[in-house]
Each structure stands twice: as structure tokens, then as C-alpha cells.
Design goal:
heterotrimer; A: 166 residues; 0% strand; B: mainly alpha; two-stranded antiparallel ribbon; 2 strands
């Protein structure tokens, strides 16, 4: 990557963040058991967070010395719009998964995402979304008995009703 | 004679033959889809085969196991998303090959070397099971600790351009692995008062996030560039090519068998260690590691398939599971009225030979199914990314959920996915994080056991290491690995070769 | 089956007739609080198919592990109290409060069936310099701190048995913690530890195979699978007042579940536990069948909790006094 010469946009902030996290985790690891004994539950966490903290410091030092990139911008090269949209969509998915249930959330997510990324017709997007979810449901729920969050579609009752017919 | 008839039982009985075939075929897909794991499939089969006889039940499970370990490599090569933790190393050289349009060739090589690795593991099970399990069981906490340290040192091989970033990632992984209630003392670690964190962060969730979501996000950069056209003329690798890598494959199969036979370590660690071994011992690879080196495919794939046979070694001889899947199989034997333990081989040797025979057969089916149908599989890479990426995201979510039926794991997976994306962007390698998570407990628990056993005396621990030949041997390897990466050693070696 | 239930409901004059007639009207989710391949998992997976026959519906089993089983327990507790989420648990939750592992325990649940209990046994590596319990105690007293006991963390069976031993004869040993009795018994065979308190079922095959030796059975009566091994009460009668004791497995639903659902599940699991295949399986592994339901099960749970909580509190393992949670002294 070209980043070995110039500092990429946002790189400084991200490394500052990692440095801060390391420091916080080290503090938290110290709180587990202090220096009670060599076999204490906090010994390995303290050692690893110390390594994190030191290496993060070293990386930060390197990053600080490099000149900022003048050819890249945060909005174009690191988080262009499609990536922001995807991250937001993923967050929405996580929030809606429990209340709406797996089936409607996934269909909705796929529909919006495919439509946004590919710009195919509404019918194609809806068909692909519904087909994919049906396939996933078949494999995970019916064959592997993974009970996904049910939400608003009473799938448990529907399956019981269908199987009662046979 | 008796042995032979039991060994051939799955071959002559058409029903068993069919079940092993079906199991292996299904296993490849179970392994290929991240989030569907062999462990999960086998535990569901316990209920599914409850009323069956023990032989068909085992035949199906063995098929799934063998196919599943191999199947993990498929998505690793095609999408850079390892289907199972044991395929993480495979992605490092497999995906670059797919990007060069050589996915079919890569899958072909992986299939053949997986077969070879599987074969060696089963052979070791059939011939040396008692002595190997005797060796494996002698590993003391300090030996497991040294093994974990050896594993941690793989960070060097997985780091890519910046070692210090690799070290950071590895340490972060170990810290993530420590999250939750410490089972040895019931003390909370990195829990911050959040109840859901008590159970720890599911490492499959971390893996799917880091490799599935983060990869999908970074592929969004080039969402509109057309997919690489795949050449699929040559799938079965040419014999000279196989022969060239056979010595390496045999060595890494040995690593896989032993690591698989050790209780508490499985194919995931075996594959990473083998990759590291290949990287250290291969003098002049045709293609550099990380850019599509064939050695980078041979080593992990022989090792993780050899670990299957290895995992059965302590299970069959002592009733001790070699990994998570054999643990469930022991439960299955028990449900079917058998008593897995040291007496099983004495009282029911036919069970041992039946399992060896079924494994052999599953291994052959793996080769067969692996080499056919590749053309269809490779088409996945040629699908438009605008459709593929959303589907990968949904599959990642389902997969993370399915591991422990937990929505919290989904949140973690998504969180690590976004975090992993930024790490990738800023040049942090993700492999060491997974390595750290895998090794975290092995290192932490055994360090504490080792030091407790010596009454908290570090000197006592060192004396213990020096006085045991096994520990001393492992310790020497650790020291050599560390020395060989110092600048002084490298200079020495360069002088000698010059 | 359906008719008799309908009849019973009519007699009791319940209003919710249609719902009652149908339970279960969809798949039931069964949460196992321990991992695949463990003993709770094996027991749950072997009793459920028999229970399903009576239930007339499917129970989909899933392992929800972590936090000494607290993660799985909390998940069932958060679900609706409609009988469609069932917990397969072991004894651990009864110690959550005193161990500060969680705020919920079986008092938030209704026992469907307390299936069976395990018999604790003390095993040692085959070349250990003692064969019986009194010899072991003597050896430990002569060599303080050198004997290594395996443990599975505070609150687990080994810690409770060790507390029992300590309460009768204070000894100095080194406890080496493992994350389950499987790994600890493996370590015993490799010589990393000397003695391990375990459940009979987990050790029986290795004892028969000569990979470890039985020191004493921690129960009031000898085990039919190991007739030569003495019980600790035979050599040391002072243990008579705390034994029998043992870890158990049970099926639970959240408190507030409709009575008809509890009744149906109880009936199903009672029948499942009585199935000859299941009984044979459990006894072959050295478990004692209990199959307690209703009041009986509740009493068993309460007694177990009070006995064990106080034992580990006095042994210095518990973090909070059982008194704080209103657990009576036995």
C-alpha cells in the first residue's frame, strides 16, 4: 500500500483511537487482580495490553512523522459513500433484527442494498432478495434447526401448520 | 482377517457407503459456508440419528467431518472469507490466486493435498494410535504453554509489511480471547458490567466479522470493476507439481497429525503452524508467500486434514477428545450404548477399524466431490459484486447468529466487521487477531496451571522445563524461532549462502 | 392424550381451552446451558427424543454456553413464559447468587423434571502412593502442598467435594484449575495432577482401563459399577451427615408458564425419563435416576441449594453469604 510513505486520511485519528483503547484496556486489566500472584487471572491480560499499548505507541510515532497524503481524501478513498451507506444499513439491520424478525429484516436489507449498489429493476432486486432469504431460511432453519429471531412473522406457527397437513 | 472385514465394512455395505458419500458431500458445503460449522452439524446429527444403529450414525458424522474440514478452503480461496477457522491460512495465498483467475487451479491443488494430508492422518491413526496417544497425553501444562508461545510467534509470518502492526493485532486478539468470566477463578475480565460479555466474545463471530464483513466492505471500493474471468481449463494438478510439493506436504501432515492428536488443540492451530513452517523452510518459492504461493496452500490444507485422523487418536484409545468434533462423537457413542474409553479398543476393536475404514472412504469421496463441480463453484466469483456483497453480509449475520443463537454475537460480528475494515485500510493485518483469539485460552490457562503447579515459582517452572526432555525440546524450538528472526542471525545466514 | 387433557381442563374450569388443547402448537426451543459433547448436552439429547413421542411435537435443542451456564439460563429467563422455551440445566445455577455469577437462579423457574444425579468419586493417577481415602489424607499431611488436586473453578463439583474434605480434615494441597472435568481427567492420566474429585460417569471407563484408580466414592452406598471401591462413609463415617450429595441434571421452564404447558411437559419428560433405553444409558454411566417432578423436585432443589451454599460459604469459596439471599441453613 502507498501508505508506507504518506499518512492516509484518518490514519492519525484511527491510531490515536487504538492508542487510547490500549491504554484503557491496560488500566482495566490492572483492575482485574493487580499484581497479586504470577497465576492471577489478570497477569496475561496485563501483559498483552501492555504489548498493545507499547506497539500502538510505536505505530503512532511512525504515523506522526509521516507527511499527510495530499492525493487521498477521507471521503473518496477511505469511506466513500457506498461504504458509509453499507455501514449504516448494517447498523439498521442490527437494530431491527429483534423487533422485526429475521425474514422481513433480511429481505428489506437485501432489497435496499442490491437496489442501491446495482441499480437493477425493482422486480429483480425484490426477487433476488426474497429468493436468497428463502434459500438461507431453508438451509439454516429447516435443515440445521437454527431458530432465527421470529419477530412479526409467525413462522413457527406456519411451519407447524404446514407440517400438520402432511 | 477380522480387521480387514471391519475395515471394509463401509465399502461393502451399500447403505453405509451411501451415507458416507452424502455426509462428505454435505460436509463440503457445511464447511464452505462461514457460520455453518462441522461441530454444529454433528451435534444436530446426534438428535437426527438417535434411533439409528450406531454404524450408519457414525458413517454420516465422519463424512460430514471429513468434508467439512476440506470445505472451509472453498470460500477462503474464492471470496477471501474462510468457511472455517482452519482455512484462515489457506485464504492468504488462495485468494491472490483467484484474483489472478486461477481459482480452479488453486481448488484443484487444495483438493489433492487435502486428500494426501487426510490419508497421512488416518494412516497414523491406524498404525500408531496407542503410542501417539501415549505421547500426546504426556503434554504437561508447561508444554501446552510453550506450544502456545510457539503459536504466538507465528505473528511474524502473518504480519505482512509491518511487524509492529502484527504484534499489536496479535495482542489485541489475545485480549479479545480473555473477555468474559475467567472459568478458572470465575473472575470477570474486560466485562465492564455488561452481562452479555460474561460469556466472552464468540471467536467465530470475530472471525466472520473480520473476514466476512470487513472483506465485503473493502470489496465495495471496486464494486463496479468487472469480476476476474476465471480460467478453468486445468483443475487436476499435474503430477510433477504434486511431486514437487510432496516432501513439504508430508512434513506438514506430520505437524497436523500431532497437533490434532493433542487434546485441546485442533486443525485451526495445526494449519497456521504448518503455514508458518512452510514459510520458514521454503527457500525460493516460485511466487512469494501472500501473493499466491503454492506452498502456502499445501501446508495448511495437508495439516488441517491430517488433524482429523489425529483427533481420533486419543478418542479411540483413551476416550479423550482430540477436538470439539470428536468430543461430540464421544457423546454419540455413549448415546448409542457404547462406552468410549481405554477399554473400547480392547473390548470392541471392530469399532476402531470401522472408523478407520469410514475415514478412508470419506477421504476418497472428498477427493472425488472436490474435483468435480469446481466449475460451478468458481462461477460464484464471477457473479456481479453488487449482488454478491449484500448476500455475503446477510450470510455473515446468519452465521454469527447460528454459532450460539445469540443476537449479541451478531452485534459483535458487525462491530468487528467495521473495525476490521478500518484496520485493513490502515495496514493492520487481521490474521494475527484471529491467531490471538484462538491461542488466548491455551496460553493463559496453561501458563497459570504451570506456575500454580510449581507453587508460584518462576524458577521452579524453568527447572521443570529443563528437566523434561519434551519441554526442553519445545523450549529450544521457541528459542530458535526467536533467534532466527533477529537481524544478527539473518546476516549470518546471508553470509553463508553468499 | 388430547382428550384426557381436555377433560381435565373442563373439570378445572379453565377458560383458555383452545390454547390448552393445542400445546405444543409449534416447535419448542430447548436451550442447553453447557456445550456440545458435555454431560448435560448428552443427557438432554438422549432424553428428548423419548419425551417428544409423548409431547407430539419437536424440541429443537441448542447449546447456549458461557458464564458457567448463566448465559443460557438468562436467555430462557428473558423469553416469554409460554412453555416454548425450555432450559436443560445442571446444578450450577443454584450457586449463582452466592458465587455472584448472576441474579437469576432456579427460583425464577419451574422444574419440569429433575432427571438424575451424578455420584462424586475421588480418583488418583495409577502410580499415586496411596490407595484409600485414609491413606491419602495421611500422605497429604506428611507431604503438605505437594499433592496436586485438579479443580474446575470455584462452585464446581471438585470445589464442593474439596470443601467437604476440608470441613472434616483440613489439608494443604495445591489446586490446579481446569475448564471442565474432561480436561482435568486427561491431565490426571498424563500425570499433571495427582488427585481429582470427579463425577463417576466421567471417570468410570478410565478406571476400568487402569488409566486412573478410584480412591473413594463420595456417597452413602457403593456403586454397582465399581463394587470393590469403598465409599468414604465406610472408612470415614463423619461424612455421613453431608452425603449423599451430587450434581444433577434437570429440565426447567420460566416461572409464570401456563399450567397446562407445564403439565404437558412434565408428563412428556416423566415418560422420557422412564424409557428403558434412557434408564439403561444413565445407569451404565453411573448416574442415579431421580425423575422428580412438581413439589418433590422443588424440595430437592431447595435442599440442595441450602446444603451446598452453606458448605461452600463455610469453605471460603462463596463470595456472598447464603443468608443474604434468604437461603436457610440446613
Amino acid at each position: 500500500m502507498q501508505s508506507s510513505r504518506n499518512r492516509r486520511p484518518g490514519e492519525l485519528g484511527f491510531n490515536l483511537f487504538l492508542f487510547g483503547v490500549s491504554l484503557f484496556l491496560f488500566y482495566s486489566a490492572y483492575g482485574i487482580s493487580g499484581f497479586e500472584a504470577l497465576s492471577a487471572p489478570g497477569v496475561v491480560p496485563m501483559a498483552t495490553t501492555a504489548v498493545m499499548f507499547l506497539s500502538a505507541g510505536r505505530i503512532l510515532w511512525d504515523v506522526l512523522r509521516r507527511p499527510a497524503s495530499d492525493t487521498e481524501t477521507l471521503a473518496r478513498d477511505i469511506i466513500p459513500l457506498p461504504i458509509i451507506v453499507t455501514i449504516v444499513m448494517i447498523a439498521l439491520y442490527a437494530v431491527l433484527l429483534r423487533p422485526l424478525g429475521f425474514i422481513p429484516t433480511s429481505v428489506l436489507f437485501l432489497f435496499v442494498m442490491i437496489r442501491y449498489l446495482s441499480g437493477h429493476s425493482l422486480g429483480f432486486c425484490l426477487g433476488t432478495a426474497a429468493g436468497t432469504v428463502a434459500l438461507i431460511y431453508l438451509i439454516f432453519r429447516l435443515i440445521f434447526s437454527v431458530l432465527m429471531p421470529q419477530g412479526i412473522v409467525p413462522e413457527g406457527e406456519i411451519i407447524a401448520w404446514i407440517s400438520s397437513i402432511f | 482377517m477380522d480387521i480387514l472385514s471391519n475395515l471394509l465394512m463401509p465399502v461393502v455395505d451399500l447403505k453405509l457407503l451411501g451415507l458416507i458419500a452424502v455426509g462428505t458431500f454435505a460436509g463440503i458445503y457445511v464447511g464452505a459456508i462461514p457460520g455453518l460449522s462441522v461441530t454444529m452439524a454433528v451435534s444436530i446429527l446426534i438428535s437426527f440419528t438417535f434411533s439409528w444403529d450406531v454404524y450408519p450414525a457414525l458413517a454420516l458424522m465422519i463424512g460430514i467431518y471429513m468434508g467439512g474440514v476440506y470445505g472451509g478452503s472453498r470460500t477462503a480461496i474464492l471470496l477471501n472469507i474462510p468457511g472455517a477457522p482452519s482455512a484462515i491460512a489457506t485464504a492468504m495465498d488462495g485468494f491472490p490466486l483467484a484474483q489472478q483467475g486461477r481459482a480452479g487451479e488453486a481448488i484443484g491443488i487444495v483438493t489433492v493435498v487435502s486428500f494426501i494430508g487426510g490419508f497421512i492422518g488416518i494412516l497414523a491413526l491406524a498404525l500408531f494410535a496407542p503410542s501417539l496417544s501415549d505421547f500426546a497425553i504426556r503434554f504437561q501444562p508447561r508444554d501446552f504453554m510453550l506450544l502456545a508461545v510457539m503459536g504466538i510467534l507465528l505473528v511474524g509470518s502473518l504480519s505482512g509489511e509491518s511487524l509492529v502492526k502484527g504484534v499489536f493485532s496479535g495482542a489485541l486478539g489475545i485480549a479479545i480471547g480473555a473477555v468474559g468470566m475467567d472459568p478458572l477463578t470465575v473472575q470477570d475480565r474486560f466485562v465492564f458490567g455488561i452481562d452479555e460479555l460474561r460469556g466472552g466474545v464468540s471467536f467465530v463471530a470475530v472471525m466472520i466479522g473480520m473476514f466476512g464483513v470487513a472483506e465485503a466492505l473493502s470489496q465495495l471500493h471496486s464494486v463496479n470493476t468487472p469480476a476476474v474471468k476465471q480460467k478453468i481449463s486445468r483443475i487436476i494438478p499435474a503430477w510433477p507439481m504434486v511431486r514437487k510439493h510432496l516432501p513439504l506436504g508430508l512434513q506438514t501432515s506430520t505437524i497436523g497429525t500431532i497437533v490434532g492428536a493433542l487434546p485441546g488443540t485442533g486443525g485451526d492451530i495445526a494449519a497456521l503452524m504448518a503455514y508458518d513452517y512452510a514459510k520458514r523452510t521454503t527457500r525460493n518459492p516460485e511466487t512469494p508467500f501472500g501473493k499466491g504461493a503454492v506452498e502456502g496452500l499445501v501446508a495448511p490444507e495437508t495439516a488441517n486434514n491430517a488433524a482429523v485422523g489425529g483427533a481420533f487418536i486419543p478418542m479411540m484409545t483413551l476416550g479423550i477428545p482430540g477436538d470439539a468434533v470428536t468430543a461430540i462423537m464421544i457423546g454419540a457413542l455413549f448415546i448409542h450404548g457404547l462406552n468410549p474409553g481405554p477399554m473400547l479398543m480392547v473390548e470392541q476393536p471392530h469399532m476402531f477399524w470401522f472408523i478407520v475404514g469410514s475415514l478412508m472412504l470419506a477421504n476418497c469421496f472428498m477427493l472425488l466431490f472436490g474435483l468435480t463441480g469446481i466449475k460451478l463453484f468458481v462461477k460464484i466469483v464471477e457473479l456481479p459484486r453488487t449482488v454478491l456483497i449484500p448476500v455475503i453480509l446477510v450470510l455473515s449475520i446468519v452465521g454469527a447468529y447460528a454459532v450460539n443463537n445469540s443476537v449479541t454475537d451478531v452485534y459483535w460480528m458487525l462491530g468487528f466487521g467495521v473495525f476490521g475494515y478500518f484496520m485493513k485500510e490502515y495496514g493492520y493485518p487481521l490474521g494475527p487477531i484471529i491467531l490471538g483469539v484462538i491461542l488466548s485460552r491455551l496460553l493463559d490457562d496453561n501458563w497459570r496451571r504451570a506456575i500454580i503447579s510449581e507453587q508460584e515459582s518462576f524458577g521452579g517452572l524453568m527447572r521443570g522445563i529443563v528437566s523434561s526432555p519434551l519441554s526442553l525440546c519445545l523450549f529450544t524450538v521457541v528459542v530458535l524461532i526467536i533467534l532466527s528472526s533477529t537481524p544478527a542471525w539473518k546476516m549470518l545466514r546471508r553470509k553463508r549462502t553468499a | 392424550m388430547l382428550k384426557s387433557l381436555l377433560g381435565a381442563a373442563a373439570v378445572m374450569g379453565l377458560a383458555a381451552l383452545p390454547a390448552l388443547a393445542d400445546f405444543p402448537e409449534k416447535d419448542i426451543q430447548g436451550i442447553i446451558q453447557w456445550g456440545a459433547g458435555g454431560s448435560t448436552d448428552t443427557v438432554a439429547r438422549s432424553v428428548t427424543p423419548h419425551a417428544e413421542e409423548v409431547l407430539g411435537g419437536k424440541v429443537i435443542l441448542q447449546n447456549v454456553t458461557g458464564g458457567v451456564g448463566a448465559i443460557g439460563l438468562n436467555q430462557v429467563e428473558r423469553a416469554d413464559a409460554d412453555g416454548y422455551t425450555v432450559l436443560f440445566g445442571a446444578e450450577n445455577p443454584l450457586l449463582y447468587k452466592v458465587m455472584q455469577l448472576g441474579q437469576k437462579d432456579y427460583s425464577d423457574f419451574v422444574p419440569v423434571n429433575v432427571l438424575a444425579r451424578g455420584v462424586p468419586i475421588l480418583v488418583a493417577r495409577p502410580d499415586a502412593p496411596f490407595d484409600t481415602y485414609p491413606e491419602m489424607i495421611e500422605y497429604i499431611k506428611a507431604n503438605p502442598k505437594t499433592v496436586k488436586f485438579g479443580s474446575t473453578g470455584p462452585g464446581g463439583l471438585p470445589s464442593v467435594v474439596s470443601s467437604m474434605i476440608q470441613s472434616k480434615a483440613p489439608i494443604e494441597v495445591t489446586f490446579v484449575p481446569y475448564d471442565g472435568d474432561g480436561p482435568a481427567l486427561t491431565a490426571l492420566q498424563g500425570g499433571a495432577i495427582d488427585v481429582m474429585p470427579a463425577v463417576l460417569g466421567a471417570a468410570i471407563e478410565s478406571i476400568k482401563g487402569g488409566k486412573m484408580k478410584a480412591i473413594a466414592i463420595f456417597d452413602t452406598e457403593a456403586a454397582p459399577q465399581l463394587p470393590e471401591t469403598k465409599t468414604v462413609v465406610e472408612t470415614n463415617p463423619e461424612f455421613g451427615d453431608i452425603l449423599p450429595w451430587g450434581p444433577f441434571f434437570g429440565v426447567f421452564v420460566k416461572k409464570g408458564t401456563p399450567d397446562d404447558a407445564v403439565a404437558k411437559l412434565t408428563e412428556a419428560y416423566k415418560a422420557g425419563a422412564a424409557h428403558p433405553d434412557f434408564v439403561k444409558l444413565m445407569e451404565g454411566r453411573g448416574y442415579k435416576m431421580l425423575s422428580l417432578t412438581g413439589e418433590e423436585a422443588q424440595t430437592y432443589l431447595n435442599d440442595w441449594q441450602s446444603k451446598t451454599s452453606w458448605l461452600i460459604w463455610e469453605g471460603g469459596i462463596a463470595k456472598k453469604s447464603p443468608e443474604e439471599f434468604g437461603i436457610p441453613k440446613p
